Amino acid sequence: MGKKRQKANIISETPRQDAFDAAWAKYRPLVPPEELPALEESLKEPLLQAFRLNPLKTDPSRLDGMSSRYGWELEPVIFCPEARRVRSAQTLPSMTNEHRMGYFYIQDSASMMPGMLYDAERLNNSPLILDLAASPGGKTTHLIGRSMDRGLVVANDSGPSRIPALKAVLKTWGSVNHAVTQFPGESYGDWFPNTFDLILLDAPCSMQSLVSLDSHPMRPITEREEKALAQRQTALLESALKALRPGGQIVYSTCTLSPDEDEAVVDSVLRTFRGKVRVCDAAERLPWPAPGLTSAYGNEYDASLKGAVRLWPHRYETAGFFACLLEKTDFFAEESADKRAEVPYRAWEKSSFSPAKPAEITELSAWLEDQFGLRLSDIFSDCGSVIQKRGTEYWMLPERYLETFQNLPSKSIGMRIAMQSSGGLIPDNDWISRFSVRISGNRLVVENDDMSGWLHGSDIRTETTGMPKGTIVIIEDQNGIFLGCGRVSGDRIRNFNK
Fold first, then answer.
1. Catalytic-labelled residue, pool 255, 324, 383, 485
2. What is the pLDDT of residues 94-143, one digit of tens each?
3. Is 324 a catalytic residue?
4. How far apart are CA 181 and CA 185, in angstroms?
């Protein structure tokens, strides 16, 4: 198969062309004159697809093997060490088992910038994180990956239709210490003032990036719509800052190059919370400058906004993007009494979860060690989680959530470990996928002829495993990629992923 160059859908259809023309006329005067030729050239080139490795499941040592198998020519994403751009490929990254099983996340490299701005030591210290507008979840997975799934990520999105995608992404990624909520982001600051260590606000925006992606297509936008977006972005950022504890960090980002939605929004909150919020200079986090604007269209912004990140497409070969790292330096005046607004309440008992009994935990632990050689106590110690039951299911839940947000209604929380059936315990595929690197026994390599059927829920017929009936088997491909679990039953392995 010949090589395929990976590219984004750069302006082609008439509506996108119209959107580009309008955006180009608007933003061209803001580009430093010495950079304009480079920007014009960059817009003629296809945008390379990129992906970011999942440190919960794999590491960079696998990249050489993947490149050889799939005919990839890779290059680093210079500001994100765990990411690569795909310059050419014989097999698309999206068509690999590694992608299906969450070993990496396909993402425009510009969208990797927000997760890289936080101080590493804060992410390494089991932080309490809020992602205020999380769906579809790519940046959420970056926060989970950089914190190694320790602490807690509250992934919130106000759109009901956006919650299923967010839940699916976090499940595939293998996250345990998260909770998905569905509330207006504007409310979190009043509900939970001075609570979170780190907050991400990747705000809804006009998507005027000068590069039209399938995930973020450019479209014509009116001045009225842009003004309404800026008002909502400001309200969301004010809420996020209220929810942030003093000394905590927040990243505000958009996939638009509109100063009204970028620097102007940050400037507004700097004025509102004068002296108690500061822009952290991102220059030390970047290989070369990508400064924000301090003025646009006759408007002057706080001089510290030079320290924000404005990714004109030529600067790092990305779609247009904006990100700014902020630190809350003090309590806000109205928060001094820490008076919280009434928070949505659902008694934990109504969630159907209840603490597992000691005898049940002992039984589950013995079963996991017998079948997989997994020590549940070690896993829980690493993750800071607890075991609870829901009906016949055993779940691994984040302890931080139960301590701080137990009665806050959530759409999903934690990860299921296993469920009891008439034939015994059945492990959850996503939980085993997360911890499969710790499993040494009961593994079976599936032949290519059987792999497609297995991935679609079919059983595998076999009489040669040498394993007793009832044994739980880890199925993997010839490259050691986890594909799911099954149980030996006569002449076949029953697929749990039906």
1. 255
2. 999 999 999 999 999 999 999 999 999 999 999 999 999 999 999 999 99
3. no
4. 10
